[in-house]
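Deliverable D4.2, example record:
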Amino acid sequence: MTRDIRYHAFKVGDIVQLTQEAERFSPDFFVSEGATGTVVEAEWDYLSVRIHTPVPGAEEWDNCLVWTFGDVYFKDGPENYLVKIGKEKEA
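Output generated by the structure prediction step:
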C-alpha cells in the first residue's frame, strides 16, 4: 500500500485555522470557517484537531475534528480545510 503523505503537513502542536465550514457526523456538529484549533494527534493516516472554542455537539469527541485515510466526510483531506497559522508554545 502506498502511503499518502499529505497528513505530514501538520504536526502535533500546530495551531491551524479552518478555511471553510466543516460538518462532522452529519448533522451532529458544524465548525465555522475561521475557527482555530491545535493539532493533538498526527499520523500518516489520522489527524485530530482540538477546536479552541466549544463546539455544540462535539463534546463526545473532546471538541476535536478528526480526519482518517479515506474519510468520507472529509474526502478531499485536511489540506483543503486547514491552514497552519502558528505553533503551540512549549512549557
